[in-house]
Design brief:
The chain is α+β, with helices and mostly antiparallel strands and 651 residues long. The chain is 35% helix and 32% strand. The protein has 18 helices and 22 strands. The longest helix has 27 residues, at 624-650.
């Protein structure tokens, strides 16, 4: 059975509609009404209850009824206030009041559910600021982090060429170092790695006017090491590191004498070489995974959660800041961190690392290699019995002891930490200021109240007020423009170390200027300024650094440290890069030292990696006469090489 007034479902024993309060008798009367009368009544209700009542309607043509309980309750309440049924005022009032309470409770729950813990607001703001660096041009354009990742199993090649490009300068006839006689000399480095075949080759050459004068060439593959200097010796030196190394050493005409006299353990040497090569050939498996340790730390270690729980964060006053060139309001939060909680965090973190299974395995491997290396050399060679490195247990105890010493020092010389943090409505960190007090060795200094750290109490003579303030100004990303100041003050004395970064990126050119400055609070004593620019379309770039200092007699002075100009000719983000070094000047002006030029490249292997050319000569099979012959050949060729160089320079 349904209530014909509001459409609610009624049980057979119900005599009053629980929604609108309509009596069953009245319901029967309404049932006898025509469809037209029902529609008229519904229209009158809709008009009386407002636009919101129209959401509940009766579709007389389709014979279906649509009912939204909350809206219906509101409609009935509005209608009943206008024409309440006789004798039902109290029941309807209760229903109306219950509906209002339910709506209010739902709203309160919704607001509470979306309100974040102040601690989370502060921590999330710092996390956002840290992650924003990934939005900078170094990552977005160049993919620096991808270039820096280890290339396990990948095949790559690198090339670098530089040469002296100094010309006499009329502006500076007396340079710091006269390098004009080196004009045209340079170095060229080419390296190739075949990650799949586990082969590599390095070619290092001294050049003059782009011609190779002399070169050192090295090759490794199939556990065979080769080296040659063709301008000096017409042979390729070869060392076979495969199985049987110990026997080859003992059978060597020359090296066996060294092994015997020095009491070298050839078998231990072979075991060590095999272990080292095995680790190198399976570097990805044997390399200790720092990122993996951090992930395990975040998941399993409770140190961060306990430090967070110990933090006291209270809502403070608001202030106005400039982010992305616009004025924004930042809500302030006062943060207090008990130093004992910091010490607990430090202890727990150290314990977690020392107990990490992967860390222990990595340490045991290095311990085994170090032990084997020490056991290779006999007591006669070392002059004393070799002292073995500490075991994992001994090393862990030593690390814990050093941690406790650090904590004891900090406990005596540092008070609790207070912070003021401002976060805007988008959760971005606008400004953070950290404050503490660094104390001298006076007994009982560690028991000073935290109020002194905030500057509320009178400072004792041995106290140093320390404060670090960081302001983020945004731009294309949050940390694009920022500034910071580290302040240390003791009585009337003060030291300020400031940092300022300004960057701009209009889509065609990126410019960055950074400055570190040291002052005593009244005047600047020293500064380091760096600048860089990059033309995105043409690839032109420029880097520079200038050291500033205060001279008591001549006032403020600036000394250029370096200037770099060139063009990025090829770029595939995180994969390959190539460019020119049109000018690399060390120093500048009256402080000029040298000017270099050249080019560079890095990317996937593009050409075949080959062995060294020439007659191969096994180093272990050589006799004393062989070595004398090679020495004489090299000495003779050195003289001829010098004569050739002098001839080139005189042309």
């Amino acid at each position: 059975m349904k209530c014909e007034k509001c459409g609610a479902e009624l049980r057979e024993d119900e005599r009053v509609c629980p929604v609108c309060g309509q009596e069953a008798a009245e319901t029967e009367a309404v049932t006898a009404a025509s469809a037209g009368e029902l529609e008229g009544a519904a229209g009158m209700e809709a008009e009386g209850a407002g636009a919101g009542a129209a959401e509940t309607a009766v579709d007389t043509e389709a014979g279906t009824e649509t009912n939204t309980e909350t809206n219906t309750l509101t409609e009935r309440a509005s209608a009943d206030l206008e024409t309440p049924p006789k004798g039902k005022k109290n029941k309807k009032a209760i229903l109306i009041g219950g509906g209002v309470v339910a709506v209010a409770a739902a709203a309160a729950i919704a607001v509470t559910a979306t309100r974040k813990d102040p601690k989370d607001i502060v921590l999330d703001a710092f996390q956002m600021a840290w992650e924003s660096r990934q939005q900078g041009p170094a990552e977005q354009i160049f993919g620096v982090s991808q270039f820096m990742e280890p290339k396990y199993g990948e095949s790559t090649e690198t090339s670098l060429r530089i040469q002296v490009d100094d010309e006499p300068s009329e502006d500076n006839p007396y340079p710091v170092i006269d390098t004009t006689y080196l004009n045209g000399f340079g170095l060229r480095l080419d390296s190739k790695t075949d990650g799949e075949a586990l082969k590599s080759r390095v070619d290092l050459a001294v050049t003059y006017q782009d011609m190779d004068v002399a070169g050192l060439h090295m090759y490794y593959g199939d556990r065979v090491l080769m080296a040659s200097v063709p301008e000096l010796v017409d042979r390729v030196f070869l060392v076979d590191l495969n199985e049987g190394l110990a026997d080859r050493l003992r059978e060597s005409p020359l090296l066996s004498t060294i092994v015997e006299y020095g009491e070298l353990d050839a078998d231990a040497l072979e075991a060590y070489v095999n272990q080292a090569l095995e680790q190198a050939e399976h570097a990805e498996e044997n390399q200790f995974d720092i990122k993996g340790l951090y992930e395990r730390y975040k998941e399993a270690c409770k140190a961060q959660d306990e430090l967070k729980a110990a933090m006291v964060v209270e809502k403070g006053t608001s202030s106005t800041f400039t982010i992305d060139g616009e004025s924004v309001s930042g809500q302030g939060y006062e943060v207090h961190i008990d130093k004992q909680a910091l010490f607990t965090f430090l202890r727990d973190t150290v314990d977690f690392v020392l107990q990490d299974e992967a860390y222990q395995k990595a340490y045991e491997k290095q311990l085994e290699m170090a032990t084997n290396l020490l056991q290779i050399a006999g007591e006669r060679a070392l002059g004393t019995e070799p002292e073995l490195p500490p075991s994992l247990s001994e090393s862990s105890d030593e690390v814990r002891a050093q941690t406790e010493q650090l904590i004891q020092f900090l406990d005596q010389h540092m008070q609790d930490i207070d912070m003021t943090v401002y976060v805007d409505k988008e959760g971005r960190l606008a400004m953070a200021e950290l404050r503490t007090v660094l104390m001298g060795a006076a007994e009982g200094a560690a028991d000073e109240s935290a109020d002194s750290a905030a500057g509320d109490a009178q400072s004792s003579p041995d106290e140093v007020q320390a404060a670090l303030q960081l302001t983020l100004k945004g731009g294309n990303y949050l940390t694009e423009n920022m500034s910071g100041v580290l302040s240390l003050s003791q009585g009337e004395e003060k030291i300020l170390l400031s940092y300022d970064k300004q960057e701009s990126n209009d889509g065609t050119k990126i410019e960055t200027a950074q400055e570190f400055a040291l002052s005593d609070g009244t005047e600047q004593n020293a500064s380091l300024k760096t600048n860089s620019s990059y033309q995105i379309e043409s690839g032109e770039y420029q880097l520079g650094a200038v050291l500033g200092y205060a001279d008591p007699e001549m006032g403020d002075q600036e000394m250029p440290l370096y200037t770099v100009k060139g063009v990025i000719t090829e770029l595939e983000k995180g994969t390959s890069i190539a460019g020119t070094l049109d000018e690399l000047e060390i120093g500048g002006g009256e402080y000029h030292i040298i000017t270099l030029s050249g080019d560079f490249s890095y990317g996937p292997l593009s050409s075949e990696l080959t062995e060294l050319e020439g007659e191969q000569w096994d180093v272990m099979a050589g006799t004393w006469e062989d070595y004398e012959e090679i020495s004489a050949e090299a000495s003779s060729n050195v003289f001829g090489l010098l004569m050739e160089v002098m001839s080139l320079m005189s042309e």
